[in-house]
Specification:
Helix content: 25-40%
Largest sheet: 7 strands, antiparallel
Structural class: alpha+beta
Family: Belongs to the kindlin family.
CATH architecture of the largest domain: Up-down Bundle
InterPro entries: Band_41_domain (IPR019749), FERM_2 (IPR035963), FERM_central (IPR019748), FERM_CS (IPR019747), Kindlin/fermitin (IPR037843), Kindlin_2_N (IPR040790), PH-like_dom_sf (IPR011993), PH_domain (IPR001849)
Number of helices: 18
Keywords: Cell adhesion, Cell junction, Cell projection
Strand order of the largest sheet: 14-13-12-11-17-16-15
Organism: Nothoprocta ornata
Shape: globular
Number of strands: 24
Strand content: 15-25%
Oligomer: single chain
Mean pLDDT: 80
GO biological process, one term: integrin-mediated signaling pathway
Length: 691
């Protein structure tokens, strides 16, 4: 620090390094400043010293030691805390960033490194034409995934598969032109046929996306080979799954503040599993990217599913092949037509099946758009109830498992069961309150098994109860009632009948007739069914066997369009028990062992780290408040009925869980008005915290 009589006794030297985008070597300048000089004045002095005529509007001062931007140009150096030992960089706010999208394609584009991540993601989504940016965020790859990637990259070049959007329209104020979508926006592709609409490019005019680039983002591409799949990181345990969620960036801080450098690679992912206002007319890219995230989660076994469900997913993937792979679909259609003509014993036709699928998708679209189906219950004064014979099993240690029949009555949010129908007017053997319980399907359609697993919260954990239904219709009605009751809703709720219909449509998808004719694969047919399932099933079946199983499953989806198949894939993914759960390794206050915490859109689940069994469930609807003790990094939550929990997070920073909880609560406040601007301040109030 030196004084100069020319600038006054309070002046001192400040060193600023200029990161000039047109020069490889950084230049250092020494400015004579005083503490009362504002940041804008420092930048003005610096530009005068540089003497290079250019647009400096995107440049700002970055304080390296403090890891912060000096963006408030009217603040004095004293107010900012800048002294002579500060190391400042004069650098651009927008820099190139590589993003790995859910479809595993990498794009390279200019992003604001000075805006908070929430705003940066919003700008990215405008460039990529993805609506509802609040559902996405940026994620660092896990260390295990990076290790596997480095091993793979020894013999391959990552840069060959990068879509360069470096010409994105960046100004000092925004990274993309506003208004890329609105209620009057032209559809990106026909929602019925799945083909691109002729006027697709009319609303891409201000975006760096060309028609070819739009196709990369909005349409599916050939599946990877089993060899490529084997080279990708796949979590084996719940603890491994917890590692996948450790790298979410803080939405309230900028990229530079979190150590992200120019041309680094991050993952762009749907972080919050509440896909609001999903509309095929406007969401070509969004639907495809959700579909791709779901598809890779299935293939890499990041989420568990049954063999029946895996085959359904495989059949739906086949419908999304590009046109150059249509021979694969033709092969499917050829066998499906043979099967339908030769099998008179089938109790449904392709036409009636297509009608049911279309009806299910119609209900799905109504639900996703926030509308009301035509067959909902209206003007109900009495809450409906179910009453029927079901079989019950309560698993007990050191006891044989056997189901016993009882007379069950479902009313409000509770199930009561009696010895028989005649005693149904008296006191029940037991009454089960399902509010806050976990409902898990236990179904094998081929084996005529229609079971419901209930995990009911009690003071010391969860009571496990199994119900067994006789047929599909009975199962759909009782399963739908259980799902609604777990959320505190009754069968009088308007979502009951759509839920029943949705369950029946899923069972329909799983109901196919095995035929030996499907095994006969035409010689020379270039078909790789192993590209559509996870490694577990590749190891279990030979390719010809696998092809036969997929063909059988394909009977129930053969008539769907591309968009319908994607929506059905997403809906089936949403029906899986593990859907939407993000895992973290935590230590609860007072506990001597580690547990897993599952964070979902409507609840938190404490899970036994050894067995994977749920221990306790807490719903957000019962939450009174939550806070974080930043000194000891402990999250504390209070629920109704004087229930309190506290835990420290071991697999990630506790800020990530804090943001997850606040983020889901924020998303629950969204309006159905498509053009409504998000309340970004509310998001930061709910998720930011004070560290």
């Amino acid at each position: 620090m030196t004084s100069s009589s020319e600038y006054g006794s309070n002046s001192w030297e400040l060193k600023v390094i200029v990161d000039h985008q047109h020069e490889e070597v950084q230049k250092e300048f020494t400015l004579q400043v005083s503490g009362d000089l504002h940041v804008g004045g420092v930048m003005l002095k610096l530009v005068e010293r540089i003497k290079i005529p250019q647009d400096w509007s995107d440049y700002a001062l970055w304080w390296e030691q403090k890891k912060c931007w000096l963006l408030k140009t009217h603040w004095s150096l004293d107010k900012c805390g800048v002294q002579a030992d500060a190391k400042l960089f004069f650098t651009t706010q927008h820099k190139m960033l590589r993003l790995r999208l859910p479809n595993m394609k990498t794009v390279r584009l200019k992003v604001s490194f000075s805006s908070v991540v929430f705003k940066a993601v919003s700008d990215i989504c405008k460039i990529l034409n993805i609506r509802r940016s609040e559902e996405l965020s940026l994620l660092r790859q896990s260390e295990d995934a990076l290790k596997k990637k480095k091993k793979k990259d020894k013999n391959s070049k990552d840069s060959e598969d990068v879509l360069n959007l470096c010409n994105s329209p960046v100004t000092s104020g925004s990274t993309a032109s506003p208004g890329l979508y609105s209620k009057t926006m032209t559809p990106t592709y026909d929602p019925v046929s799945g083909t691109p609409a002729s006027s697709t490019m009319t609303w891409f005019s201000d975006s760096p996306l060309t028609e070819q680039n739009c196709s990369v983002l909005a349409f599916s591409h050939p599946n990877c080979s089993p060899e490529t799949l084997a080279e990708m990181y796949q979590p084996r345990t719940l603890a491994d799954k917890a590692k996948l969620n450790a790298g979410w960036l803080d939405s309230s801080r900028s990229l530079m503040e979190q150590g992200i450098l120019e041309d680094d690679q991050l993952l762009l992912r749907f972080k919050y599993y509440t896909f609001f206002d999903l509309n095929p007319k406007y969401d070509a890219v969004r639907i495809n990217q959700i579909y791709e995230q779901a598809r890779w989660a299935i293939l890499l076994e990041e989420i568990d599913c049954t063999e029946e469900e895996m085959l359904i997913f495989a059949a739906l993937q086949a419908l999304n092949l590009p046109f150059k792979n249509l021979i694969f679909i033709v092969f499917f259609q050829y066998h499906v037509s043979k099967l339908s003509l030769s099998s008179e014993a089938q109790n449904f036709t392709c036409e009636s099946e297509a009608d049911e699928v279309e009806a299910a998708l119609s209900n799905l679209e109504v639900t996703l758009q926030g509308g009301k189906a035509t067959n909902i219950l209206e003007d109900i004064t009495d809450i409906p109830k179910l009453a029927d014979n079901l079989r019950l099993l309560r698993p007990k240690k050191l006891a044989l498992k056997s189901f016993k029949q009882y007379w069950f009555v479902f009313k409000d949010t509770s199930i009561s069961y009696f010895k028989n129908q005649e005693s149904g007017q008296g006191e029940p053997i037991e009454k089960l309150n399902l509010k806050g319980c976990e409902v898990v399907p236990d179904v094998n359609v081929a084996g005529k098994k229609f079971g419901i697993k209930l995990l009911i919260p009690v003071a010391d954990g969860m009571n496990e109860v199994y119900l067994r239904c006789d047929n599909e219709n009975q199962y759909a009605q009782w399963m739908a009632a259980c799902i609604l009751a777990s959320k505190g809703k009754t069968m009088a709720d308007s979502s009951y009948h759509p839920e029943v219909h949705k369950i029946l449509s899923f069972l329909k998808l799983k109901n196919w007739t095995v035929s030996s004719q499907a095994v006969s694969e035409p010689e020379g047919m270039d078909m790789k069914p192993e590209c559509f399932v996870s490694l577990r099933y590749i190891k279990k079946y030979k390719p010809k066997q696998l092809a036969a199983r997929i063909l059988e499953a394909h009977q129930n989806v053969a008539q769907m369009s591309l968009v319908e198949a994607k929506l059905r894939f997403i809906q089936t993914w949403q029906s899986l028990p593990e859907f939407g759960l993000s895992y973290y390794v935590v230590r609860f206050k007072g506990s001597k062992k580690d547990d897993l915490l599952g964070v979902s859109y409507n609840r938190l689940i404490r899970i036994d780290a050894t067995t994977g069994d749920p221990i306790t469930t807490w719903r957000f609807s019962n939450m009174k408040q939550w806070n974080v003790n930043w000194e000891i990094r402990q999250v504390a939550i209070e629920f109704d009925q004087n229930v309190s929990i506290a835990f420290t997070c071991l697999s990630a920073d506790c800020k990530i869980i804090h943001e997850y909880i606040g983020g889901y609560i924020f998303l629950s406040t969204r309006s159905k008005d498509q053009n409504e601007a998000l309340d970004e301040d509310l998001f930061h109030k709910l998720t930011g915290g004070q560290e």
